[in-house]
Inverse folding.
């Protein structure tokens, strides 16, 4: 049967929210956190799941992991109905919540792994093999005997990712895996995830606020807003839909009038010898940089990625202007 | 996975998680020793209060000091066991507020076992120890013609009592699912209940005793069976066999608490709050 590894068909989640309106009076209101979402993710895909805060991202993840029961619709992960067979599903999924650790604060890192070994009943040989591999790839060798409370945020995140993968899950859910990490830690985590997906074929679904996470990892992006799937397709398409822009920051030798850049690039800000130029995110910065370097006394430059919120906001705005239905899911 | 499988899985998960908490607490050895000692002292002061009372009066509600000590020892020991096993369930509300409760739901183990083992603390052995000492002294001092039934009833009371208090802890945890800042309501029934049971039923009003017998059946922890052992009239004129009903009452409490928990968990998973 040709069905997706993760399947959602018209999945809804409605919450009853009670608001205090008086001393004993409460007003009941229904909030549709997830509104008829359908998508499919094939085995081995790596998908970014993004949207503004409160859009329904984590509600979706919670339904996919069996934490929450959907109000309506059909949902399957590896053929399992998550809400009905929570513990069976648990053996096949790995979950990392970026803001929360599953590691034991006061105990050496290795103790948390030993608990996973026993709780997930991982066969000894496989546990040893997986642990060795994860320790090497995530650079945890020197940290195994360190109490978790002494680890840096980046080290702890890597530790958490290893903990979520010891039992060889077929799908890994990551909620903000790079939040708060420094540049080096971020790139280590991304490099590892790319390798995990390529070598191991692990299906990865990640939510993030960091557009670079998506850019470097995911061929496919899903955007959710107000509980609805607004976009499902490649990242480049998202840039086009949102007409998002990157910013080139150049430092010139001295104060000069705004650079005359080829359209659509344009100067958006000047501050002494420093100038900011906006250009379409989907285009390469190289020709623009080459041109400026040839015509102006360039000292230094950097490229800034568009803020994911800005991209989404722009995209949602564009979609609202054009009275078209949201694009259909890319894979059928 | 059947009920039996779930029970075995639950006990296994409980053991694993409790073990991690014990190891965690051992990383602060001094703190551990101090809290064990502190726990022993504080719970010990409880009984000192009763001793002080008896320095002024000869009986309390018609019960002598060894008899009250018997009630006290039974109540504190039974509660101590439940408190050791499930006493940290009051952190559940906090876990729900900060979202860490969700992490328990993605683990391949029964949630109740994980919540029960949460913050497992060996320092709670102090209460059992202290209750046990008072119970031992009471057993040696009470004026009772020991029969086989009466001897057997003592361990039955402790175990049934522990089950009844455990059910109260689980019921309290369930309540926290619906009212996440309600840990104190749970404490009223558990800690409050054990304090109540340290005194003879005759010192309390009829309505309270009735409530503690039929509504929250704490009376079956010690009052009713202890009245049989001590040859005293039952509170509110219960039938003769009521003294032996404790295991049954305890089992019913556990089943009801388990069902309530299941309902509560289902509600959490459908409302997320």
């Amino acid at each position: 049967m040709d069905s997706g590894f993760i399947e959602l068909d018209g999945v809804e989640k409605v919450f009853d929210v009670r608001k205090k309106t008086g001393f004993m009076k409460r007003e009941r209101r229904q909030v549709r956190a997830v509104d008829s979402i359908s998508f499919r993710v094939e085995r081995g895909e790596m998908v970014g799941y993004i949207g503004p805060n409160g859009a329904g991202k984590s509600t979706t993840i919670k339904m996919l992991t069996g934490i929450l029961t959907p109000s309506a619709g059909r949902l399957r992960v590896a053929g399992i109905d998550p809400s009905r067979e929570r513990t069976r599903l648990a053996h096949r999924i790995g979950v990392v919540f970026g803001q929360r650790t599953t590691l034991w604060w006061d105990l050496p890192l290795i103790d948390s792994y030993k608990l996973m070994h026993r709780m997930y009943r991982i066969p000894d040989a496989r546990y040893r093999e997986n642990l060795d591999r994860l320790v090497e790839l995530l650079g945890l060798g020197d940290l195994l005997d360190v109490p978790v409370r002494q680890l840096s945020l980046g080290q702890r995140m890597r530790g958490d990712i290893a903990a979520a993968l010891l039992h060889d899950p077929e799908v890994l859910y990551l909620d903000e895996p790079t939040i708060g990490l420094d540049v080096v830690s971020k790139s280590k985590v991304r490099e590892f995830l790319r390798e995990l997906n390529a070598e191991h074929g692990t299906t990865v679904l990640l939510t993030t606020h960091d557009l670079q996470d998506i850019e470097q990892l995911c061929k496919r992006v899903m955007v959710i807003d107000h509980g609805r799937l607004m976009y499902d397709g490649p990242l480049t398409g998202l840039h086009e839909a949102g007409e998002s822009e990157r910013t080139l920051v150049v430092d010139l030798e001295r104060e000069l009038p705004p650079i005359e850049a080829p359209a659509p690039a344009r100067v958006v800000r000047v501050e002494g010898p420093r100038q900011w130029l906006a250009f379409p995110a989907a285009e390469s910065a190289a020709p623009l940089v080459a041109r400026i370097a040839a015509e102006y006394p360039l000292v230094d430059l950097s490229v800034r990625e568009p803020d994911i919120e800005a991209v989404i906001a722009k995209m949602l705005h564009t979609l609202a202007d054009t009275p078209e239905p949201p694009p259909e899911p890319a894979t059928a | 996975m059947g009920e039996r499988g779930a029970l075995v899985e639950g006990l296994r998960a409980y053991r694993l998680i409790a073990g991690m908490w014990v190891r965690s607490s051992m990383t602060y050895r001094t703190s551990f020793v101090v809290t064990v000692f502190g726990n022993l002292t504080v719970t010990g002061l409880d009984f000192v209060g009763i001793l002080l009372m008896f320095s002024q009066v000869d009986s309390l509600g018609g019960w002598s000091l060894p008899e009250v000590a018997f009630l006290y020892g039974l109540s504190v020991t039974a509660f101590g066991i439940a408190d050791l096993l499930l006493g940290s369930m009051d952190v559940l509300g906090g876990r729900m507020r900060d979202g860490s409760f969700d992490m328990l739901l993605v683990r391949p183990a029964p949630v109740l076992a994980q919540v029960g083992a949460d913050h497992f603390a060996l320092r709670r052995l102090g209460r059992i120890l202290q209750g046990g000492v008072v119970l031992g002294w009471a057993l040696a001092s009470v004026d009772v013609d020991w029969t086989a039934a009466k001897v057997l009833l003592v361990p039955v009371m402790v175990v049934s009592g522990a089950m009844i208090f455990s059910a109260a802890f689980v019921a309290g945890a369930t309540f926290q699912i619906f009212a996440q800042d309600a840990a104190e309501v749970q404490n009223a029934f558990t800690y409050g209940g054990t304090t109540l049971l340290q005194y003879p039923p005759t010192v309390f009003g009829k309505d309270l005793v009735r409530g503690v017998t039929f509504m929250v059946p704490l009376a079956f922890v010690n009052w009713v069976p202890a009245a049989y052992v001590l040859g005293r009239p039952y509170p509110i004129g219960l039938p003769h066999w009521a003294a032996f009903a404790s295991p049954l009452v305890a089992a019913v409490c556990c089943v009801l608490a388990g069902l309530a928990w299941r309902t509560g968990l289902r509600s959490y998973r459908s409302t997320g709050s």
Chain B touches chain A at residues 1, 9, 13, 16-17, 20, 23-24, 27-28, 99-100, 102-103, 105-110, 266, 269-273 (CB under 8 Å). Chain B is about 75% helix and 0% strand. The first helix of chain B runs from residue 3 to 26.
